[in-house]
Specification:
- This protein has 221 residues and is of the alpha/beta class.
- The protein starts with a strand and ends with a helix.
- The strands form two sheets. Strands 1, 2, 3, 4, 5, 6, 7, 10 and 11 form a nine-stranded mixed beta sheet that branches. The protein has a two-stranded antiparallel ribbon with strand order 8-9.
- The chain contains seven helices and eleven strands.
- The chain binds zinc ion (ZN).
């Protein structure tokens, strides 16, 4: 599958697109310390391109953070707080402009939680069908990964969400308020259904790849 490039100011985003009107949005690489999942994700998407709904896949949403291997980008900002109209972050603008005018059925942002060994996800909007989520969480447990229970991030005032058995249904208004990518998708009517898996950062690369595979098997294929 052909690789494309989209440039806005000094930011160039690489992406793969299977249709002019993609219904599935897949994004990873928001944070530079969460990149072990990018290659497994690329492998799954590219080897299953025909099996997937029409999609656009952007493996690296924040090139400067990924190049530096850090959560923060070249301006010392967390890019996932800068998705809103007139954002001063060019890397956020680049992604927003790349997907402008689309209408996705569902969007996925793939993250890792560095230092974490347990799995969880944020669901938003229409919410993924309960049975599919149950299947995913069971698959993850079967991989030997525990499900997260408790507060997601005690240090970040924009998070501090109480997650139960690996699952949290997020509110659009909160996501919009904090400048999260999913909040932007909802507010601009690009996608109301959004899934944000947080793959544990402190497990082996093999386990991470297996979790990504389980997400596709349970929720996407
Ligand atoms: Zn992240």
């Amino acid at each position: 599958m052909e690789k494309h490039e989209f440039t806005y100011k000094t930011t160039t985003l690489t992406y793969y697109q299977s249709s002019k009107t993609p219904k599935l949005l897949l994004v990873s690489g928001f944070h530079g310390d969460e990149t072990d999942i990018v290659e497994p994700l690329r492998d799954i998407v590219l080897t299953n391109a025909r099996r997937l709904p029409p999609f656009i896949f952007i493996p690296v949403a924040c090139p400067s953070a990924v190049a530096a291997g850090t959560r923060l980008n070249k301006n010392n900002n967390d890019i996932n707080r800068f998705y809103y109209l007139n954002s001063p972050e060019d890397e956020a603008q680049a992604l927003m402009k790349l997907i402008a005018g689309q209408q996705f059925d569902v969007a996925y942002s793939f993250h890792e939680d560095p230092g974490e060994t347990r799995f969880y996800l944020y669901d938003m909007g229409d919410g993924v069908e309960g049975k599919k989520i149950d299947n995913l969480l069971l698959s993850v447990v079967n991989l030997g990964i525990e499900l997260f229970n408790g507060i997601d991030d005690l240090e970040d005032p924009t998070l501090q969400i109480d997650i139960v058995d690996g699952y949290y249904l997020e509110k659009e208004e909160q996501a919009v308020k904090h400048g999260f990518f999913n909040g932007y998708l909802a507010k601009s009517n690009l996608a109301h259904s959004h899934v944000n898996p947080e793959i544990p950062g402190a497990v082996s690369r093999e386990k991470k790849a297996a979790i990504v595979q389980a997400i596709f098997d349970s929720l996407i294929f």
